[in-house]
Amino acid sequence: MQEGSVVPATVVTGYACDRQGKVLVYRLNGLRVLFVVVLAFVGLSYANVIDGEYLANNIWPCFHAGNIYGLLCSFIFYIKGKRLPPDQRDVGRRAITVDQVKHKKEEEEDKATKKSSGTKAPSTPSPSSSGGVGSFLMDFYAGLEFNPRLGLFDHKMFLYLVGAVVLECVLVSAAITQYHALGGRLSLGLTTYLLLFSFFVAEYMYHEHVHLYTYDLFAERVGFKLIWGCLCFYPFFYGIGVWPLLARGPDQQDTTAPHAALAALCFFGGWALSRGANNQKYAFKTGPPNAPFLGIAPRVVPGSRILCSGWWGLARHINYLGEILMAIGLALPGGGAGAGWSALLPWLYPLYYVALLFPREREDSRVCELKYGQAWRDYCRAVPYRIIPYLY
């Protein structure tokens, strides 16, 4: 699909580079593929060619199939990575990026200038090569390659696309199931949840080009964590909030309009923080120097490229707060819908983000201090809050 032979694709350059420092080229068509698959799923279900309720009614068998497929693919990529010659393995903490290539070129030019003038140029320490490669468990879990490819077919981007498409089909299947069970209508709670999560998935696919500049693309290898996550965890866990809504009977109280409005407010408030921060950084990295973003002039820590204005002046990872708020917004429609323990299920989703992003912020901070040194410490003094302004 990424080759564009089935669904048209847009060709863009990314932020990550291959092992030789050549910037990777991508063919992006995620949003188009999402629409084609979901429309085909709904159309074939309406025509009774497929059972539109199958995913919702057989979620555990589907989960087990995704689990087995994820494990199998993880072993395949592990074996593939181990068969690579040592000099072709990705052993750094992060993939080579455009910024690193540019900095290295500038450093080499500076050394040449200093040498011609008889002055010894200071050397910059090389990035750490301790990428966690060694033990079977670490290699299998974290992976051995950052961006494995077959021509222009990028396996990592394809995995993210599969996870998003299957997740959306699961949600649509749940909606079809309730539509039939309630005699041709959907509850307000499930409608709210479906609209918010569908926006989340479609918006993610629309901004594929922006995500090429995010953590997942240059800091995550393709191993069990990512493969099993995309093929099993993402599609079958992220939508956990739909099940209490689907289990609600016609005689049970529906989500109220104020409750639905609160969910939407929380979700879109988080979206504004997350998308605004990521798009501001993307515009800063790819746009003309000093070009404002939504009227906000870029300001950096002196002597560095660390952005400290706009969203990045609120907290050092304000985008993480946005992700958590969106997850809370998605938990609200079903968070009080079920009886007993089922009402707690939707809250596992935001708790997952808290457990994921708070430790990641600490790791990001350590990596950035190694990379930027004093400039990062200056940024931490200028922007003291890690994730939540005025609190943390």
TrEMBL record:
Coiled coil: none annotated. It comes from Acanthamoeba castellanii (strain ATCC 30010 / Neff). GO terms for biological process: sterol biosynthetic process. This is Ergosterol biosynthesis erg4/erg24 family protein. It is found in: Membrane. Pfam families: ERG4_ERG24. Residues 101-131 are annotated as: Disordered. Belongs to the ERG4/ERG24 family. Residues 115-130 have a biased composition (Low complexity). Gene3D superfamilies: 1.20.120.1630. GO terms for molecular function: Delta14-sterol reductase activity. Its main location: membrane. It is a multi-pass membrane protein. Keywords: Membrane, Transmembrane, Transmembrane helix. The chain crosses the membrane at residues 29-46, 58-79, 158-180, 186-206, 226-245, 257-274, 324-349. InterPro entries: ERG24_DHCR-like. GO terms for cellular component: endoplasmic reticulum membrane.
